[in-house]
Write a structure and sequence with these properties.
This protein has 280 residues and is of the alpha/beta class. It has two domains: 209 residues, Tandem AAA-ATPase domain (Rossmann fold, 3-Layer(aba) Sandwich); 44 residues, no CATH class. The protein has twelve helices and seven strands.
Length: 280
């Protein structure tokens, strides 16, 4: 409930709650209030294809019979061509309250999506970390679309999987030209921040996202590992030493052979084709 209140109040913000915490439900809570107030008529959700069913199921679970779901999916199997999909967006979405696009599709329908989100629409980016690549084509499309929207929610449970550069696109999608005025982080600051940079970045980010943690959800701590120590037999030690000597100049081959020794020693009798592991 708090996350929904926060996102409604902010109009444009992020939800960084942990996976399984109810980000979809809280976003639907924002939609429910905006819809009741006559501020929006629909959700346009842009996210991975595998999130489509979750949005449909969650909508039904949250609203029950209080609001009938009318969904439009760009992946509808009856739409066979780009032209079919373009016509469907133009003529078949008027009564839809949940419209679903995947990130791979938006480049083909920029102008159509811009018209949809320009009024009466809550625009949601699900798993927005999927478009974190700086200068990426899909991120550029998302930025164009977001410029037209009045209400935006950017959702991800992993906002900074690698470095602070992962949030650059997210912030520009939410705040566009205001990024330079308020945040103003250089790429160098985001990529290799010093301690004082980290403090500044965190302080500036904090007002613009909500996050429900595992602790707040009363998720118990993970059980500690049960480590069982078993001494190697004399025969196993002999095999180990043979392998260590034979593959002393090829560490990858040694690791593979040791894994075979501990899991299924009969594999040691087979020829090892190291080229099969070239991509490792």
């Amino acid at each position: 409930m708090w996350d929904s209140f926060f996102m409604f109040t902010m109009k444009k913000c992020s939800n960084f709650s942990v996976p399984g915490s109810g980000k979809t439900a809280s976003a639907l809570g924002v939609y429910a209030y905006l819809h009741k107030k006559g501020l929006v008529k629909r959700i346009v959700m842009i996210g991975p294809i595998n999130s489509f069913n979750s949005w449909i199921d969650e909508f039904k679970a949250c609203f029950g019979g209080k609001q009938e779901l009318s969904v439009f999916s760009i992946q509808n199997s009856t739409l066979h061509s780009t032209a079919d999909k373009r016509r469907a967006i133009a003529f078949n979405t008027g009564g839809s309250n949940l419209i679903l696009f995947n990130y791979e599709s938006i480049g083909s329908f920029i102008s159509e999506i811009e018209k949809l989100v320009s009024k009466d629409t809550l625009l949601i980016f699900d798993e927005i970390h999927k478009i974190k690549a700086i200068g990426g084509v899909r991120a550029t499309y998302a930025l164009e679309i977001a410029r037209k929207a009045s209400y935006i929610i950017a959702m991800t449970g992993t906002p900074i999987p690698n470095s602070y550069t992962d949030i650059r696109n997210l912030l520009e999608i939410l705040f566009h030209d205001e990024y330079d005025d308020f945040f103003g982080f250089s790429m160098q600051q985001l990529k290799n921040p010093e301690e004082q940079d980290i403090q500044v970045i965190n302080k500036k980010l904090q007002p613009f996202f909500c996050r429900t943690t595992k602790k707040q959800l009363l998720v118990p701590e993970a059980n500690g590992d049960a480590i069982i120590v078993i001494n190697a037999s004399e025969q196993e030690n002999k095999l180990f030493n043979i392998l260590r000597l034979k593959y002393s100049k090829n560490k990858l081959a040694l690791i593979i052979r040791l894994l075979q020794l501990e899991s299924n020693p009969s594999l040691l009798l087979e020829t090892l084709d190291i080229s099969e592991f070239a991509d490792i």
